[in-house]
């Protein structure tokens, strides 16, 4: 069977993150992945792409100044590997889109009107929606015959209880400007919580979970019986946990101070909080591997960044344990959550009183599959579950096409 014919019925999923572009050609039913890859450190001089097709992995380092360059590079690698995407009989191109605003609560077939609405909403997700749109436009140009579908990161959290979704500000102003907590990384929180239930052999409806999605962007969610009841990101992906380059929670008065006293413009404050804050703002690095290396040399700023990161994580863990009342599982996922052994250990250190006991040996194991890292006598199961937003997006995209 040729590479192209094996791609028949598959969905090309494009997942453009803040500094990465993940892609996968995946069959939504068989879960067969014909090709996949990731472009990393987009925007840096040492950006690279890792592309796997037909069991062969190609790693190429090339300056990719933006996501458009990454998409173009990716398409060339598909062709070199023998997959002509336009002749492959794809079911859909499924795009991860970060912010659906008040408009989009379900996966949506992409039209020119949908593109302009996503563009309009970009002000709410300045690091992400523009990158998502680059992927959408490039794919529509390359594959005009294949339906494109947008799957929104905000959708899973649409039903958050009002008490969790509402900011305590003037209602008239909030309603006029669509100011509420939307939540993000929803595709991942939904997928990982479902997989955690499968791993535990329990009915999703019967368990309470905390999911910690720790990537370059980071968010936590409290999920009761499959329904999210709270999450750390809010109107924009800026709220909540300390992230690679984003501050997470700060006193809103700081924004006023930066404008009135430091005389920074709104755009400068936007850049400061979205691109120059978080771990990067604290120690100059946003990649956990670099931070870990610096900490090992005794670097004080890296240590401080790490401590602030862990402190914020534990604050939300505590909050969500109280909100849920009973917690059955705590699950780590995404780049940091799946790989950073010390983050998992430190986030949950000293919580034996609350029924949480990590098994240090299990925590050290590196694997690509779902696993338990808690000790057998831990009341709460602690898991590492690799996220697979691509598969989730492929399934949702195929369902939209089948239903239209
Ligand atoms: P995003 O999709 O938000 O860009 P990812 O989920 O791909 O983010 O995660 C990226 C983060 O994961 C980076 O900060 C990176 O340092 C971290 N990461 C990846 N691999 C490892 C590792 N082996 N050890 C520690 N951190 C890692």
UniProtKB/TrEMBL annotation:
What residues bind substrate, as annotated?
Answer: 96
Q: What is its main location?
A: cytoplasm
Q: Which UniProt keywords apply?
A: ATP-binding, Cytoplasm, Kinase, Magnesium, Metal-binding, Nucleotide-binding, Transferase
| Chain segments annotated as coiled-coil in the UniProt record | none
List the record's Gene Ontology CC terms alphabetically.
cytoplasm
GO molecular function terms attached to this record = acetate kinase activity; ATP binding; magnesium ion binding
Q: In which pathway does it act?
A: Metabolic intermediate biosynthesis; acetyl-CoA biosynthesis; acetyl-CoA from acetate: step 1/2
Name the needed cofactors.
Mg(2+); Mn(2+)
Function noted in UniProt: Catalyzes the formation of acetyl phosphate from acetate and ATP. Can also catalyze the reverse reaction.
Q: Share what the entry says about its subunit structure, partners included.
A: Homodimer.
- Protein name as it appears in the record: Acetate kinase
Q: Which organism is it from?
A: Gordonia rhizosphera NBRC 16068
Identify the coding gene.
ackA
């Amino acid at each position: 069977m040729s590479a192209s014919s094996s791609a028949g019925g598959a969905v090309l999923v494009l997942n453009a993150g803040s500094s990465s572009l993940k892609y996968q050609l995946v069959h939504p039913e068989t879960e067969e992945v014909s090709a996949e890859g990731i472009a990393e450190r987009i925007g840096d001089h040492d950006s690279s792409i890792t592309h796997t097709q037909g069991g062969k992995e190609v790693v190429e380092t090339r300056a990719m100044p933006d996501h458009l360059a990454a998409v173009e590079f990716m398409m060339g690698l598909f062709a070199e590997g023998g997959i002509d995407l336009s002749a492959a009989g794809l079911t859909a191109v499924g795009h991860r889109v970060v912010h659906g605003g008040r408009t989009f609560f379900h996966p949506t077939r992409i039209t020119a009107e949908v593109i302009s609405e996503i563009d309009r909403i970009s002000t709410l997700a300045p690091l992400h929606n523009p990158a998502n749109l680059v992927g959408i436009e490039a794919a529509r140009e390359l594959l005009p015959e294949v339906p494109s579908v947008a799957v929104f990161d905000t959708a899973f959290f649409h039903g958050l209880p009002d008490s969790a979704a509402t900011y305590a500000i003037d209602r008239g102003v909030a309603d006029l400007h669509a100011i509420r907590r939307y939540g993000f990384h929803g595709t991942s929180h939904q997928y990982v919580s479902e997989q955690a239930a499968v791993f535990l052999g329990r009915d999703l409806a019967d368990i309470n979970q905390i999911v910690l999605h720790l990537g370059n962007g980071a968010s936590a969610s409290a999920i009761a019986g499959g329904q999210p009841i709270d999450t750390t990101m809010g109107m924009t992906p800026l709220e909540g946990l300390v992230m690679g380059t984003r501050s997470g929670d700060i006193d809103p008065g700081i924004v006023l101070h930066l404008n009135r006293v430091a005389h920074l413009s709104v755009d400068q404050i936007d850049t400061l909080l979205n691109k120059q804050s978080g771990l990067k703002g604290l120690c100059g690095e946003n990649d956990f591997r670099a931070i870990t290396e610096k900490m090992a040399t005794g670097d004080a700023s890296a240590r401080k960044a790490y401590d602030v990161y862990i402190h914020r994580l534990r604050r939300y863990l505590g909050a969500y344990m109280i909100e849920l009342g009973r917690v059955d599982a705590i699950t780590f996922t995404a780049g940091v959550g799946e790989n950073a052994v010390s983050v998992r250990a430190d986030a949950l250190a000293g919580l034996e009183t609350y029924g949480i006991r990590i098994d240090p040996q299990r925590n050290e194991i590196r694997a690509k599959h779902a696993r338990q890292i808690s000790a057998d006598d831990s009341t709460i199961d602690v898991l590492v579950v690799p996220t697979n937003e691509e598969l989730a997006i492929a399934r949702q995209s195929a369902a939209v096409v089948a239903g239209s």
